[in-house]
Amino acid sequence: AQSVSQHNHHVILSEAASLELGCNYSYGGTVNLFWYVQYPGQHLQLLLKYFSGDPLVKGIKGFEAEFIKSKFSFNLRKPSVQWSDTAEYFCAVKGASNYQLIWGAGTKLIIKP
Amino acid sequence: GAGVSQTPSNKVTEKGKYVELRCDPISGHTALYWYRQSLGQGPEFLIYFQGTGAADDSGLPNDRFFAVRPEGSVSTLKIQRTERGDSAVYLCASSLLLNTEAFFGQGTRLTVV
């Protein structure tokens, strides 16, 4: 079955710490991969996406993610987090010729000032 | 409008009642999606419109759920005989074309008591 697994439901870090949020997926065929962020009280926003090409993709606000096909992973990273990164982060996948996003359960990230 | 607008933002209804949730997509976006997000989970696909027609309604949980988009812009998600298990945040998203970035509204939080 198609699924997305996010390993941590809650992560607490101090400012300036490095961040890595795990995402693994189960999906047959060519995939498109996404990370969305939801800041408190706001709507879901696209952080970054991978469709093809360089497996290391850079997004907004200093975030990046690496697609490792052999591991079915698309982990999100940021070298130095800020208090304003406090939010919930969702990984999502869809087939390249599809439109239905399949979502992970989300990771709540809290940054201590 | 500037973004996807969903109304109401909150809806409390009694079990067995009928509700309508409205979505105003970004002007010019041909694709419109409805997702449902239950507490502690990622969004789940409900239905997708391309123009006026429902291209895929395979995610609707049962025949109490129905959605329309009569003029290819505003969409209404309709739920009959609501049940407590229908309580969730209902998200609407739109994209310019299939396979382009989807922009999300803030959602309607439905509570069935």
- Greatest interface by residues involved: A-B, 20 and 25 residues
Share of helical residues of chain A: under 10%
Element-by-element helix/strand order of chain B: EEEEEEEEEEE
Order of helix and strand elements from N to C terminus of chain A: EEEEEEEEEEEE
Distance from first to last alpha carbon of chain B? 33 Å
- Structural domain count of chain A: 1
Give the topology.
The complex is a heterodimer of chains A (113) and B (113).
Chain A: E1 3-6, E2 10-14, E3 19-21, E4 23-26, E5 31-38, E6 45-50, E7 56-58, E8 64-68, E9 73-78, E10 87-95, E11 102-103, E12 107-112
Parallel strand pairs in A: 2-12
Antiparallel strand pairs in A: 1-4, 3-9, 5-6, 5-10, 7-8, 8-9, 10-11, 10-12
Chain B: E1 5-7, E2 10-13, E3 19-24, E4 31-37, E5 44-50, E6 53-56, E7 65-68, E8 75-79, E9 88-95, E10 103-104, E11 108-112
Parallel strand pairs in B: 2-11
Antiparallel strand pairs in B: 1-3, 3-8, 4-5, 4-9, 5-6, 7-8, 9-10, 9-11
What labels describe this entry?
A: mainly beta; Immunoglobulin-like; four-stranded antiparallel beta sheet; globular; B: 113 residues; mainly beta; seven-stranded mixed beta sheet
Description:
- The complex is a heterodimer of chains A (113) and B (113).
- By secondary structure, chain A is an all-beta fold.
- Chain A has one domain: Immunoglobulin-like, CATH 2.60.40.
- Chain A is built from no helices and 12 strands.
- Chain B is mainly β.
- Helices cover 0% and strands 49% of the residues of chain B.
- Chain B is built from no helices and 11 strands.
- The A-B interface holds A 4, 9, 32, 36, 42-46, 49, 90, 92, 99-106 and B 3-4, 31, 33, 35, 40-45, 48, 56, 59, 91, 93, 98-99, 101-107.
